[in-house]
## 1
Amino acid sequence: MTHIKITVFAFIVIAILSVTIVDSCKVPAAILNKSGAQLWGENCNRCHNAPDPKTYSDDQWDAATEHMRQKAILTDLEITKIRDFLKSAN
Amino acid sequence: MKIGKIKSTLIAIGFLFGSNLIFAQTDSTAPAPAPEVTNSPTGGSQKFLLAGKAGITWQSGIPSVNNPALINSFNPISLMLMPLVKLNNRLFLDGQIEVGANPNPGGGAGININELILYYRVTPSLNVFFGNFSPKYGLYLGVLDDFTNRFCSSPVGMARGPQTQTGIGIQGGVQTGYSKINYQLYVSNGPQFQTDSANFGLQTYGNYTDNNKGKSIGGSFGWLPFSNSNLQLDVSGQYTAKSGDITTEFENISSFSWATDLNYYHVFSPVMLRVLAEYNYTQTDKHLVSSGDSVNTPFAYTNFSNQLSGWFVGSTLRASGSESTFLSNLELGARYGSYAPPKNAAWGGDPINQTTFVMTYWFTWKTPLNISYDLYRGAINQDVVTVRTIYFF
């Protein structure tokens, strides 16, 4: 069990180090130029159905998307664009 | 000693990581965030949403020792409230409060705080959180729940590891070229080692406060390799050096849980395919007890191997691209899984295998009607039919 624990935690440490290193990777333009609608379809459908923008008001979407930022651990760029899309389409 | 060095290393790495993220890349070509509307002296705007769900369930099955009341029963409405408060541009309060009916004679209701978490966004990819939280562990815990469990019933192989506990942590998502990664790292009060005869050796997570001076450390790492984010692979784990009550002979019993999961979806027009899978494993130190829990009824336990594991794999199909409204809202699913508890534990025994078939009709994107058929075999032999509808608000 000790061997397994050390292995898994070493993996997590290496993963975190990887984040630190690749953190400086330049994000491709194709990713940066994705629209909020596209990100909404791609990310929201992964766990539940993509939400109807008309479900909530602007203020409510502000709160709901913060919840999803944390639950799905989305990137800041993704959740910002998704939030702006939902508020524009409601 | 070795574990102490690992902890110190992790803390050091955490500082290195944190300092890096504070100065994390902000790509010069990334669009600037929209200016926040401010209407308060503190420089942020407060937004509030009371979300939640209400569910109605009907179940039918052959009564068993495990569930003698399972006879064509309507179950009380389940209600969960989720107060979501965006206090300002960085601070967010997230709650999950469950109101449940007491199934025992006499009725009544119970209120349970599933989660109550305060998040503070330090940088775009670093969020600090504190409170009563469900760590990201496996496919469902900390992420998915009734809102996303398309199979109506819970898989027998889940919820056997870290659950809601009080602590502090960090998490965030990072774009890494065409792929993405996300992480979570936390320190918490951890589980409590049970010593009563019916649950001896079980690690539970019901307490809000700690039962000893030790803390648990845990985390998860997720990788989304494709640019359309349709595949997520995760590995998560938690280590607890001390799980028993302080000053007792059980204080230094340690436990380790780890899980790996997969979540995939793709539209093969006009059909959307989903595949979900998870494996989880928990090992608690071997322990031998020779003293009884009371003067009048002493007992002795053999040295059983206290390990448990669970897994499941499932898939659903939905003709989301069909021109027929009915067909486009219909989702069919099948799942198979297993749970293997410690064989010699009072709460353990033989493995339980579960086969689930489910049909879901989505009235709206958040209002499903599920009809599921579960076949439990092994330690439990039972067939259960469940009809459920949930309204999320």
## 2
Amino acid sequence: MERMEIKLTVNGRKHTLYVSPDRTLLEVLREELNLIGTKKGCDDSNCGVCTVLMDGLAVKSCTILIPQANGHSITTIEGLEREDSLHPLQQSFIDHFAVQCGFCTPGMILTAKAILDENPMATEEDIREGLHGNICRCIGYKKVVESIEAVRDGEYKESCGEV
Amino acid sequence: MEGLIGKGEIRIDAYDKVTGKGLYASDYGNQFPNLAHMKALRSPYAHALIKKLDISKANALDGVMYIMTGHEPGLDWDQFPKASIIAKDETLWAGQIVALVCAETLEIAEKAVELIEVDFEKLPAVLDYYAAIDPNAASVIDPEYETRPLGFSDRPGDRASNRVSPNVVGSFKMHAGDVPAAVEEAEIIVEGEFWTGKKTASPLECANAICRYDSDGGITMWSNGAGVHGVIKQGICRILKIKESMVRIIQPYMGGSFGSRLNPYVEVITALMCLRTKKTVSFQFNREEVFTGAPSNWPCITKVKLGAKKDGTIIVNDYYLAEEIGACVNNTFFSGRLSSSGAVPVYRFPNLRMDTCAVATNTVPAAEYRGLGCPEGEFGIECLVNQLADELGMSPVEIRMKNIIDKGERDAFGELITSIGLKKCLQSVADAVQVEEMPEQDMGVWKKGRGCAVGGKQNTPLGRSEAEVWYNSDGSIQLFISCDENGMGATTALAQIAAHEFQVPISEVKVTKGDTAITPYDNYSASSRTTYNTGNAVILACEEAISKLKIEVARVYGLHPSKVEIKGRKAILVGSYVQEVDIPSLFAPTSMFTQGNWGLQKGTPVIGHGLFCPAPIHQWDENGLSDRVWNWFQYSAAAVEVAVNEETGQVKVLKIASSADTGNPINPKLVEGQIEGGVHMAIGFSINEEHVFDANGKIANANFSDYRLPTILDMPTNDNVHAFINPDPLPDGPYGAKGMAESITIPVGPAIAHAIYKAVGVRVTGYPMTAERILALINEKKAKEAAK
Amino acid sequence: MRFDKYFEPTTVEECCSILKEFGSDAKILAGGTDVVPRLKNKIWRPKAIVGISKLPDIDTIAVQKDHLVLGAGARLRKISLEKSLEKDYKVIMEAAGNVSSMQIRNVATIGGNACNASPSADAIQGLITMGAIAVITGPEGTREVAIEDFFTGPGTTVLNAGEFLLRFKVPAPKPGTGAIYKKFAIRGDTDISIVGVGCRLTLQKDGTIEEACISLAAVAPKPMRAIEAEKLLIGKKLTTELVEQVGEAAANSCSPITDQRATAEYRKEMIRVWTRHAVEEAEVRAKSKLNEN
């Protein structure tokens, strides 16, 4: 099958790739760009573990065909860490024990970022509505919501900067 | 407690996980440029003969390297983990491997699988206990089962005889007191028959392994399986007859297990393919395969009869249990003993009779799932205790406080209960939810109710754990352990123990884990044993290292070692003109030109090794009784408020309180996280999760669309989720700790069941308590009332 | 290879000609949330995938004077949050918002939801209750089809070879109209519907029902109207008894199947329950519309 030129900005860096158009964004991120922080859980658009941001919106990368991402800006978990600190959500997840096996964590953090970016005053109900496409088997969600609320409430402004 | 024990230290692996830097087994694929890929052809039928299997076209496909079938030479499939057995002439469940392809790319492997020509002849199948227990049922297991020699994980004495059906394997009986007489004496009897559904643990990371073929003919494997030493390496060496020196197993970060990975159903077959092809191979299960080709839990049928006095004192429990173990061919591991274990350590049963067995079916072979059958085995007991309370006009809290066994008593087996904090657990949750009061009904068609329950889970003595500690010449500390880190935080808790022993912050301890070439032996993380077993080993290792350090320091200053205290980089001396010493400064500097061959030398750590193994069990007598059947018990209580929709049968959990006695917590934040997670998992399998079968006996909902795992919306809002820790220290646990977190899942289902009864007046007899089942019960009740 | 060729036409003509050339061997890619999983599971093995995101105005959401235009490529989440739809087209927002989770709705499209033609589809129920019109274009030109005639069976539509769905037009509701869609699934929006009921009622000033539309999801090979149930409502005022009868009639009018999600009996029962709720709530909305004017 003929490869196609795909231009992607990933975590702020521009990439020009030549890949088969039948690959998914998840496959391209993991296999072409070695960005293995984005995980494969069900490969069926249900578990949310593969969530990345495309132009700031949360999407399930296992269900995005790579031509759909052509010309767009992708943020993966690797793109959140700052030079001298973590992103507030990352630090908050650590501090609030919202990480156990960690497999849902990248997708969960990015979805949380999408929720707060769109709605900085998101209530618990808004957070629950935004997260119901992300399955977690370990945590029971309480600490995840607490982490997100802490960032929403400005507890990380000083140490980690703006969301 | 001073120091680090009992502190909520931040997880040592959290940074790796929130940044995406932590590598899981499938993340290693990119490192192997010529990685070969395995793909399985699986049977679509619950029970079938393979009439024809033609792999010639598949073999001819360019890029195909090897195709393995059940007739692979030089193998004894009986030795293999059940879920990985490649069928020879007969497939025993829908999902069993019929052929296994290895090819240069995943795409070629998938194409090759499609080119394999196979004809099946469907045979009668049994899909559940009731079908399997029929004396005329189709047989799932080998007819020669009773005379086969015992296998590796077999328990002597648990093999069934006088089997009522060809599918019964394993049996366990015990009788304490005189049950028939006690039943006569009882002033009130409650009884029932209970069932539970078949479920898949569904950790988010699919099972996978990458096995590298090393140039000397050995193998190195990265896998998310459990037990690098005790399960995977020992399994591979024993089954494939390879030298221990030639096998190295590494466990990277693991995306959850919940017991499902305790069977090396990926690793052994992957190692085999690696050795056959002499190439580096990868076997990545997809999600459907995790349902159909990886072990599920084992459902239980229980028939329970409780007899009590009018004041609520329970005097007898007549208990039947059958474990439904799927297509575990020639099994001698399951007998009902595990699942029925929860019937003993919770309540005082002066008369207890247990008659249990295991039954094979043409479904996915079962393996460990959080709770090891106790959530299934205790459901009926808890429902009946609640029913007893209702019939006697007692509160469900009161009746339990009356009957829960106390520390210092002996349970029905004869075991001494040395640690039980269950009454405090029950009180905390009862208060949090105000379970003894009816909630206000203010939700229209949603009717509210509250319920509670308790549960207990044994820890089995499961062999030894070892740990190694290095006190480096600069004072930095390293810990080497092989227990599993499924995500529960074991490595953090163990690092905390080491840091506490040396009196340093946890950041001073670096942990290396899960690499059989580097880290010492451990069996696996099962039965909640890690904190207890490996924790004790870590303490012993630290004590040895500290003792050696004391000797070295003491020698320098002419003191007796007992006059030296090690405090991180410092040694505190008593009786010398020197108060305090910087230990690293005592290590002789590195030099090519000074010949030193004793004492502290830079570059050579002071090493401590610890080995801990629990005391052995005491073989039971002809009544099944013994004063040491299990090791210790963890306990949990749960109270819930639910709302039941009278029109749709849906059940929503509005409030949940869960409490755990897992001994003194090493890290209470980790324990809390396990409580909240365990509760969420239990809500899922109590209300929604189960395998649904199609006409061929294949799982019809083998995906995350239709297998209804709980989402965040199934959990109450944060203010309504309460986790309590009510520890009762374990005398031989590390700092009084036990382990967790299986007991958490046990009381959630029966608490919900009783809350449903309080809400809409129907009693469930099993779970999952799906909307359809609840609505049918509600309608049945309406019809009965209308008929009056 | 999941497919052989990928196209991304920039004009409608180009798109039609590709579709004509490949016929049933081509699949359109809009949001991909139905297409991509099927490509991965090899349920579909098309020769060509035709991405429509570059077609002009394909993702329009525009409220005009007397109708609403929704481009086939309009994203479900955008529709569900579009404030300009709140006044007259609320049910369309809500039904679009009932589909799965945020991540899916960010990419899934209204056209995809329609052309995938699942009988359980939620987003299109908003369109059905509002009497939307599908605008289809092909090599022979453009034609319009009422949305209820658009579906021909599970997964099939009236689209001929070479044709594709361009947009929907939704006529503005008459005064006194209220519409609602009730999705019923065990885990809420996350799940595929067990049943769904959409209802639109238009009331006269005195509350008499002038027009009724009851649309059922997931209980037939395609979305179906509960005609007998609708007839019971016309010319009447809503009472508790009437609501019960309407629910009963709707349940009797369908023959759902048993599958891994639910039994036929349960689906029928749920139609009875949720038709009642849909009718009651549509009437409340219609009454408030009456009071507005």
